[in-house]
């Protein structure tokens, strides 16, 4: 039996298990690219407008940090700028989640040991996982290249290859992370930390003008491909070379470690827990604190970037009436800066709901990995156990928005010379998003309690509401369709009228969903 024996079967199994996850990721990212291209075609229909916009973008440190530098003032070039670095990071998240799901997570639950007892080679599981991620990356790259082909075939190909190369690179990062630790959650944290560091190094290089910093970042390499602005295909050799090195390292570690073990040995904990850890809430905090801190850091960076952009949004938009109209439509106000902030806070609310769903579904992962049953065999009741995770999900969601709002208000206020006033406006704008984000947490809890096998459907709801919020104004969707999203009903602050009624209704909906989920959990079988 060879080291790769059974790889085709494991590949088919992986594709079957991800038959919903991969199409969802690919289609959502492809739609964002196509909608961005369509928006720039409508908003800046003359080359003079695009040249003016490009010049202002490249002079704004905050936008440079968030999106990178514009290398070409065509519609294709602006699309590549807007979706290039952020999109590459999202593609990296997709592939690292896929690889760790099919490697370390399978080992942690014991399923890989069962599979490995058959005619399966030592390298087959890792190879199948990498192939699943590679197929997803190539499919996504091909779709976006076809969608942008009308803007220039060579530039579209460069953009698609850059995204596919980023997916392969971070799949390889995840492959190494999966060998380092015995825990899938820690492996994901390591891989995400590498991705985040890569993004931050790129952001620092673009914002400061220190071009050498950009070349130290793998995401910076993808930016330097410059689709539609030079199409430097040779830069792709850098991520592909690093991918090959990391894959070779991952395979070497697979050969040298025991199944289920990691390069770093797990630390044995104390025989008995400290008093502060002897409660379901304390256990939930212990399990979720790393994720909470990571999300908080991301919201801090995003808030700083939005605050830096807000003070110069009038200059960035310039004379483009269509852009002003779109921002006002999304933000709901006549003042351009207020409308931009209101739209940004709406997006922050959607992003915060992603954390809430992740934290709320943590009990489901504990249940399916069979760690919940021994805990619930003690005097700990189901509701107390679930309530600890629920409290962290709800409080964490509000905390994310507070951090982002404070960072936005302080940065914006410092630039405008009114820190106190801008900070108060920003905090008000983010806090009204909390009830809508809690509705998504309530949906996750309701599915967990009532339909546990369908609990991952909460992510589909998050994606649908984010798409409605971002694409609805661009596509001029009807009001009944837009009203399906809870974020449509939040007051558009700052600058708008504060209305308490929709917030009370959203809180009532969230409470009803949570109550239904907890009632279902109380009655159903565990691990069902």
TrEMBL record:
<feature type="transmembrane region" description="Helical">
    <location>
        <begin position="498"/>
        <end position="521"/>
    </location>
</feature>
<feature type="transmembrane region" description="Helical">
    <location>
        <begin position="426"/>
        <end position="451"/>
    </location>
</feature>
<keyword id="KW-0812">Transmembrane</keyword>
<feature type="transmembrane region" description="Helical">
    <location>
        <begin position="20"/>
        <end position="40"/>
    </location>
</feature>
<feature type="transmembrane region" description="Helical">
    <location>
        <begin position="390"/>
        <end position="414"/>
    </location>
</feature>
<feature type="transmembrane region" description="Helical">
    <location>
        <begin position="128"/>
        <end position="150"/>
    </location>
</feature>
<feature type="transmembrane region" description="Helical">
    <location>
        <begin position="458"/>
        <end position="478"/>
    </location>
</feature>
<keyword id="KW-1133">Transmembrane helix</keyword>
<feature type="transmembrane region" description="Helical">
    <location>
        <begin position="233"/>
        <end position="254"/>
    </location>
</feature>
<feature type="transmembrane region" description="Helical">
    <location>
        <begin position="156"/>
        <end position="178"/>
    </location>
</feature>
<feature type="transmembrane region" description="Helical">
    <location>
        <begin position="190"/>
        <end position="213"/>
    </location>
</feature>
<feature type="transmembrane region" description="Helical">
    <location>
        <begin position="292"/>
        <end position="310"/>
    </location>
</feature>
<protein>
    <submittedName>
        <fullName>ABC transporter permease</fullName>
    </submittedName>
</protein>
<feature type="transmembrane region" description="Helical">
    <location>
        <begin position="80"/>
        <end position="100"/>
    </location>
</feature>
<keyword id="KW-0472">Membrane</keyword>
<feature type="transmembrane region" description="Helical">
    <location>
        <begin position="339"/>
        <end position="361"/>
    </location>
</feature>
């Amino acid at each position: 039996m060879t080291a790769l024996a059974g790889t085709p079967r494991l590949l088919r199994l992986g594709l079957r298990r991800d038959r919903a996850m991969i199409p969802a990721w690919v289609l959502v990212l492809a739609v964002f690219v196509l909608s961005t291209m369509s928006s720039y075609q409508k908003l800046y229909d003359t080359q003079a407008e695009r040249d003016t916009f490009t010049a202002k973008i490249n002079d704004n440190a905050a936008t440079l940090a968030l999106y990178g530098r514009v290398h070409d003032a065509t519609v294709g070039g602006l699309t590549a700028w807007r979706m290039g670095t952020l999109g590459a990071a999202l593609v990296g998240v997709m592939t690292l989640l896929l690889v760790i799901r099919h490697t370390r997570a399978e080992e942690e639950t014991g399923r890989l040991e069962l599979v490995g007892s058959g005619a399966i080679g030592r390298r087959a599981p890792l190879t199948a996982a990498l192939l699943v991620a590679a197929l997803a990356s190539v499919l996504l790259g091909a779709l976006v290249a076809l969608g942008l082909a009308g803007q220039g075939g060579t530039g579209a190909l460069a953009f698609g290859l850059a995204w596919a190369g980023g997916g392969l690179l971070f799949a390889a990062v995840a492959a190494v992370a999966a060998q380092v630790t015995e825990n899938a959650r820690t492996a994901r944290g390591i891989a995400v930390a590498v991705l985040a560091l890569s993004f931050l190094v790129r952001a620092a290089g673009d914002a400061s003008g220190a071009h050498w910093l950009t070349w130290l970042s793998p995401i910076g390499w993808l930016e330097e491909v410059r689709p539609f602005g030079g199409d430097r295909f040779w830069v792709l050799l850098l991520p592909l070379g690093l991918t090959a090195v990391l894959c070779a390292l991952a395979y070497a570690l697979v050969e040298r470690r025991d199944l289920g073990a990691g390069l770093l040995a797990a630390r044995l904990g104390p025989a008995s827990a400290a008093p502060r850890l002897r409660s379901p809430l304390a256990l939930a905090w212990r399990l979720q604190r790393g994720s909470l801190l990571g999300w908080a850091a991301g919201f801090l960076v995003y808030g700083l970037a939005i605050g830096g952009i807000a003070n110069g949004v009038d200059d960035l938009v310039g004379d483009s009436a269509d852009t002003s109209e779109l921002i006002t439509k999304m933000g709901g106000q006549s003042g351009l800066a207020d409308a931009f902030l209101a739209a940004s806070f709406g997006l922050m609310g959607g992003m915060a709901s992603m954390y809430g769903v992740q934290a709320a579904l943590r009990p489901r992962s504990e249940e399916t990995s069979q760690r919940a049953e021994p805990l619930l065999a003690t005097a700990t009741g189901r509701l107390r156990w679930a309530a600890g995770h629920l409290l962290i999900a709800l409080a964490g969601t509000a905390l994310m928005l507070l951090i982002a709002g404070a960072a936005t208000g302080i940065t914006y206020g410092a630039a405008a010379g009114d820190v106190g006033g801008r900070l108060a406006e920003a905090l008000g704008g983010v806090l009204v998003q909390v009830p809508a984000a809690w509705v998504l947490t309530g949906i996750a809890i309701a599915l967990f309690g009532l339909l546990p096998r369908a609990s991952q459907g909460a992510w589909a709801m998050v994606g649908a509401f984010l798409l409605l919020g971002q694409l609805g104004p661009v596509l001029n969707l009807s009001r009944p369709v837009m009203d399906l999203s809870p974020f449509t009903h939040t007051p558009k602050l700052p600058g708008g009228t504060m209305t308490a009624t929709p917030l009370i209704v959203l809180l009532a909906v969230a409470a009803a969903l949570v109550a239904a989920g907890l009632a279902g959990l109380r009655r159903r079988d565990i691990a069902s």
